[in-house]
Amino acid sequence: MRTLIIIPVLLFSLLLGVPSYSADFNKGLTAAQSGDWATALKEWKPLAEEGNAAAQNNLGLMYDNGWGVPQDYKESVYWYRLAVEQGYEVAQYNLGLMYEKGKGVPQDDKEAVRLYRLAAEQGYADAQGNLGVMYVFGKGVTKDFVYAHMWGNIALMNGNERGELVRGHVAEKMTSSQIEEAQLLARECIKKNYKGC
C-alpha cells in the first residue's frame, strides 16, 4: 500500500520539480532580445544538444551573425542542419540562405530552392518570398514569371513584403492571362496547404 502512495507523489514531484524546456528557451530568448548573448548561449546550447530544433536554429543564427560567439559559417550550418533534419521550417529557410549565398557550404541554388520549398510548404512566408525571387531570376529553377507571381502572392498574403516586390516586378512583364493563371495557381496552392505547388 505504501508503494502505491509513493508512486503518485513521486510522479507529481517530478512534474513540478523538473524545469521545462520552454522556460529555459524563453530565458534564452529574453536574453537574446536584450543583447545578452552569453546567457542566450548558456540557455540554448544544452537544449540544442538535447535536440530542441528551435534552440539549434538559434545557435545557427548566433554563429551565422557572430552574436556573442565568433562568426563561424560552418558551425552555423552544423546547427541549422540538425534542426532541418527535424523538419524545422525556420532552419530550412536559414540553411537555404546559406546555400544561396555559399556561406559555410558550396554555393548551390538548387539546394537553396529545395530548402526554401520545404519551408514554404509549411507556410513559412519568408521562404515563399524567396522562392518567388528564385523563379524571377531562374536561380536553381527554370525562370518562370507565373510561378514567381504565384509565390509572390502567397508570400504577401502570409505577411512577407518581399512578395509584393516580386509580384510587382514580374507583373510588368506578364500578360493579363499569365497573371490570371498565377492567381489561380496561388488559390489552388493555398487549398493544398502549399504542398506540390
Overall 3D shape: elongated
Task: Enter the CATH topology name of the largest domain.
Answer: Serine Threonine Protein Phosphatase 5, Tetratricopeptide repeat
Secondary structure tally, helices: 11
CATH class of the largest domain: Mainly Alpha
Strand content: under 5%
Extract low-pLDDT stretches: 1-21
Query: What's the number of domains?
Result: 2
The run of helices and strands is HHHHHHHHHHH
Structural class: mainly alpha
Helix content: over 70%
How far do the termini sit from each other? 61 Å
Q: Would you identify the CATH architecture of the largest domain?
A: Alpha Horseshoe
Largest sheet: none
Quote the average pLDDT.
Answer: 90
* Estimated radius of gyration: 21 Å
Report on the structure:
The chain folds into 2 domains: 21-107, Serine Threonine Protein Phosphatase 5, Tetratricopeptide repeat; 125-197, no CATH class. Helices cover 73% and strands 0% of the residues. The chain is built from 11 helices and no strands. The protein starts with a helix and ends in a 6-residue tail after the last helix. Residues 1-21 have low confidence and may be disordered.
Quick summary:
By secondary structure, this protein is mainly α. The chain has 11 helices and no strands.
Key attributes of the depicted protein:
197 residues, mainly alpha, Serine Threonine Protein Phosphatase 5, Tetratricopeptide repeat, 2 domains, 11 helices, 73% helix, 0% strand, elongated
